[in-house]
Design brief:
54% helix, 24 helices, globular
Length: 364
C-alpha cells in the first residue's frame, strides 16, 4: 500500500485500524508516528510503543514526546529505553508494577548499580534475566541469577495439572518457563564481539555467543565443536571459517538437539559425502537413516531397503528418490502412513498407469 494511503489510516475512525497501523508500520513518517503515539485510544498508543516484538526494530520516538510517553502507563515500557535515566526516574521505574517496565529498565545502559542489583532479585525471572545479560553485571550476581532460573523448575506434569494451581502459581510457572526458554536462546552481541574470555564460560548462551564470532583461533574452534551442548557445537560449525570435516559434520548432526521443533538440521548446511550417506542407510538411528536418500546415486538395493524401513519418516524420505524402483514406489502408495503415500504419489517417476488411477480415484 502506498505510504500516503497508509498515512490516512492514522486518522481512521476505527481504533482497531489505527492500532494495527501503529503496530506494524514501524517505518511510518514522524508526523504519522506522532499521531499514533498521542492517539486517545490506549490500544493505538500501545501498538505504537510496543515492546513485545523485540525482533522488529522500533523507531526512536520524538524526544519531546518521551516524558509524556514515560508518564503514560500504556506507553511507559516502550519509552524506558529512550529516556534520560536520572536517579529519581530510575527508582520510580524500578518500583513499577508492570513487569515490562522493569524488564526494559533492567536493560537501560545508564541503570545505577544499586538498582541493577535490586532488579537481579526481582520476583519476575524475566526481569532478572535482563540483568544476567548485562555486560556490567558482577559475576557473582550473574551466577546467582543463572542458578535461580535453572533451579526454579516445576514438576514435569505441572502443565497437565494446571487446573489445580491458583492463578498466581500458574502465572509464576509460565513466566519461569518463558525465562528458561529465553535463557537457552539468548545470544549476546558483546560476547560475540570479544569472544575469547567466554569460550569456557559456565553459561551455554555465552559459549554459543562466542561461537558466533569469526575471531576464534583454530584450537578454540575445535574445542567449541566438541562442546557438551548441541547449540554451541552447531553455532561453531555454522560460523567456522574453515570447512567442517565429514566426521565432525556427522557427529554434530547426530547429536543435534534443537531447543524447539524446526525442520533444519546441520546436514542441510554441511552435506555429507556419498560414502557416509550410504553407510547411514543402515544406521540404527532412523533420524540418521533419513539422510541416506540425499545421495542422488544411492544404490538401488539400499533404496529398496529404506522403502521397507519400519520408520515412516524414513519411508517418506525415500519416496522422493529417483532411483527407487517403480515396484517399490507403487507399493508406497498403499503405505499405512498418509504422508508416505502422498509423497510417493508426488514422485514424477511414478508409473503413468498409477498416475491415471490416482486421478480417476480423485474424480478429476
Amino acid at each position: 500500500m502506498p505510504a500516503d494511503l497508509r498515512a490516512r489510516l492514522a486518522a481512521d475512525a476505527d481504533p482497531k485500524v489505527r492500532a494495527s497501523l501503529a503496530q506494524w508500520w514501524t517505518t511510518a513518517p514522524e508526523p504519522v508516528r506522532r499521531l499514533l503515539l498521542t492517539d486517545p485510544d490506549d490500544s493505538v498508543r500501545a501498538g505504537a510503543c510496543a515492546t513485545y516484538f523485540r525482533r522488529i526494530p522500533r523507531p526512536v520516538p520524538p524526544a519531546d514526546l518521551v516524558p509524556e510517553l514515560l508518564a503514560d502507563p500504556v506507553t511507559r515500557a516502550g519509552a524506558v529505553r529512550h529516556c534520560t535515566l536520572d536517579t529519581a526516574t530510575a527508582r520510580r521505574l524500578a518500583e513499577d508494577p508492570n513487569d515490562e517496565v522493569r524488564e526494559e529498565l533492567a536493560e537501560h545502559p545508564d541503570l545505577p548499580a544499586a538498582l541493577r542489583d535490586k532488579l537481579a532479585q526481582d520476583p519476575n525471572l524475566r526481569v532478572a534475566l535482563r540483568v544476567f545479560a548485562r555486560q556490567d553485571t558482577p559475576e557473582p550476581t550473574r551466577a546467582a541469577i543463572h542458578a535461580r532460573i535453572l533451579s526454579d523448575v516445576p514438576p514435569l506434569d505441572w502443565l497437565a495439572n494446571h487446573e489445580s494451581l491458583d492463578d498466581d502459581t500458574l502465572e509464576r510457572e509460565l513466566l519461569g518457563e518463558m525465562a528458561r526458554a529465553e535463557l537457552r536462546s539468548l545470544r549476546l552481541s558483546w560476547v560475540t564481539a570479544d569472544p575469547l574470555p567466554y569460550v569456557d564460560s559456565p553459561y551455554v548462551c555465552f559459549r554459543a555467543s562466542a561461537a558466533m564470532s569469526d575471531q576464534i583461533p583454530p584450537p578454540l574452534v575445535a574445542r567449541l565443536l566438541d562442546d557438551e551442548e548441541s547449540s554451541v557445537r552447531t553455532k561453531m560449525a555454522l560460523h567456522s571459517g574453515d570447512p567442517i570435516d565429514p566426521e565432525t559434520a556427522e557427529r554434530i548432526d547426530r547429536t543435534y538437539r534443537p531447543d524447539k521443533m524446526v525442520r533444519w538440521r546441520p546436514a542441510d548446511d554441511f552435506p555429507l559425502p556419498a560414502d557416509v550417506l550410504r553407510r547411514l542407510a543402515t544406521d540404527p538411528d532412523p533420524r540418521m537413516r533419513q539422510l541416506a536418500p540425499r545421495d542422488p546415486d544411492l544404490p538401488v538395493e539400499l533404496a529398496r531397503r529404506l522403502a521397507a524401513d519400519p520408520d515412516h519418516m524414513v519411508r517418506r524420505t525415500i519416496a522422493t528418490h529417483p532411483r527407487l524402483p517403480a515396484e517399490d514406489l507403487t507399493r508406497l502408495l498403499a503405505d499405512p502412513s498418509e504422508s508416505v503415500a502422498a509423497t510417493a504419489a508426488a514422485n514424477p517417476n511414478l508409473p503413468t498407469t498409477c498416475m491415471y488411477q490416482l486421478v480417476t480415484r480423485a474424480g478429476l
